[in-house]
Amino acid sequence: MNNAKFKQDLVDTIPRLRAFARSISGNRDRADDLVQETLAKAIANKDKFTEGTNLTAWLITILRNQYYSVGRKMQREVADPDGEHAASLESKPQQAGHLEMKDFLSALQVLPDDQREALILIGASGFSYEEAADILGVKPGTVKSRVSRARARLEELMSGQESFERSELAVAESAELIQNALSAQP
């Protein structure tokens, strides 16, 4: 079907589309919006229309689907004419999580090697204490102790009780350790 014929056929169906839209929406303005949205979708999806089939039926299907899609969205919306509900919503800044992660990765490098290694084996690699003990050549109780001390020290560092140097090098080293640990999961 050539483009000019397709557009003319669309224009010819507008009265039927408007009548159907008014019958399901019960609102003249909403019906006009539905018809406009339907025609825009039909033009955008012209390649999905099979020539020789009923164009009006195809358009009414698009219109009906659009009507119900919008209806479902509107059911989830909250009426808030004076903006009280919107004012009560809050969105925390996205960058805080990123900065906290960089602090954590820097703090991880402050830990003694044996504590950092035990913590990464348990926390990032997902090994059990027994498996980590086998890997490290120590007893499970030793691994538990190292992990406990590492967590306590990280808590001190992250809460500001103790200061530490934040550096991109430390972040990169910790990120590499964790990446390697994640790829070596049991």
TrEMBL record:
Stated name of the protein: RNA polymerase sigma factor
Superkingdom per UniProt: Bacteria
InterPro entries (UniProt xref): RNA_pol_sigma-70-like, RNA_pol_sigma-70_dom, RNA_pol_sigma70_ECF_CS, RNA_pol_sigma70_r2, RNA_pol_sigma70_r4_t2, RNA_pol_sigma_r2, RNA_pol_sigma_r3/r4-like, WH-like_DNA-bd_sf
Ranges where the RNA polymerase sigma factor 70 region 4 type domain occurs: 104-154
Lineage of the species this protein comes from: Bacteria, Pseudomonadati, Pseudomonadota, Alphaproteobacteria, Hyphomicrobiales
Keywords from the named record: DNA-binding, Sigma factor, Transcription, Transcription regulation
Any one GO MF annotation of this record: sigma factor activity
Pfam family, one: Sigma70_r2
Gene3D superfamilies, alphabetized: 1.10.1740.10, Winged helix-like DNA-binding domain superfamily/Winged helix DNA-binding domain (1.10.10.10)
Annotated ranges, domain RNA polymerase sigma-70 region: 14-73
One BP annotation, GO: DNA-templated transcription initiation
Record's keyword annotation contains DNA-binding: yes
Family to which the UniProt record says this protein belongs: Belongs to the sigma-70 factor family. ECF subfamily.
